[in-house]
Amino acid sequence: MKVIFVRDLPNVAQAGDTREVADGYARNYLIPKALAVVAKPGAATIATVRRQEKASAELEKLADQLAGLEISLKARAGARDRLYGAITTADIASKINETAGVAIDRRKIVLAKPIHQLGSYDVAIKLAKDIRPKVRVTITQEETA
């Protein structure tokens, strides 16, 4: 059955995509949960396009808010500025939420591997396929008493 996805479904399709899926999957899961609609000649309506434009505009606004944001994290470090633990995407997401008041999912933060050194890093946030604002993350040594 050919369906048009109304919402993003990770590892399956993005909103607005038209895909061929199994009949049972469409009838029993996608359509009842309002994740997709049956692709008919008039199904790709203006409403779907408007929804995508609105979502894109909101993501652009969020990207402008996040672009150039600088956050600072403190961590314990040992010899040669090596951290005892690691700074992960979850740490960065919680600090962005705390600093900017914007809830970012940790899975949206692009970090090849956890940070193990003191210093400054540019970290990208993947909001959409082509919207990736960069945030400056500075790791400083925690003061010991």
Q: What tags apply to this protein structure?
A:
Ribosomal Protein L9, domain 1; Ribosomal Protein L9, domain 2; 2 domains; four-stranded mixed beta sheet; 29% strand; elongated
Account of the 3D structure:
The chain is an alpha+beta fold. It folds into two domains: 2-44, 3-Layer(aba) Sandwich (Ribosomal Protein L9, domain 1), CATH 3.40.5; 63-141, Ribosomal Protein L9, domain 2 (Roll). The protein is built from three helices and nine strands, in the order E-E-H-E-H-E-E-H-E-E-E-E. The strands form three sheets. A four-stranded mixed beta sheet has the order 4-9-8-6, with helices on one face. A three-stranded antiparallel beta sheet has the order 2-1-3, with no helix packed on it. The longest helix has 21 residues, at 46-66. It is elongated, with a radius of gyration of 20 Å.
Could you state the CATH homologous superfamily of the largest domain?
Ribosomal protein L9, C-terminal domain
Q: CATH topology of the largest domain, what is it called?
A: Ribosomal Protein L9, domain 2
Query: Over the alpha carbons, how many angstroms does the gyration radius reach?
Result: 20 Å
Q: What are the segments in which pLDDT stays under 50 over at least 5 consecutive residues?
A: none
Quantity of strands, as a count? 9
Text of the CATH class of the largest domain: Alpha Beta
Structural class: alpha+beta
How does CATH name the architecture of the largest domain? Roll
Note the beta-strand portion. Answer: 25-35%
**On the 0-100 scale, what is the average pLDDT?**
87
Straight-line distance between termini:
65 Å
The overall number of domains is: 2
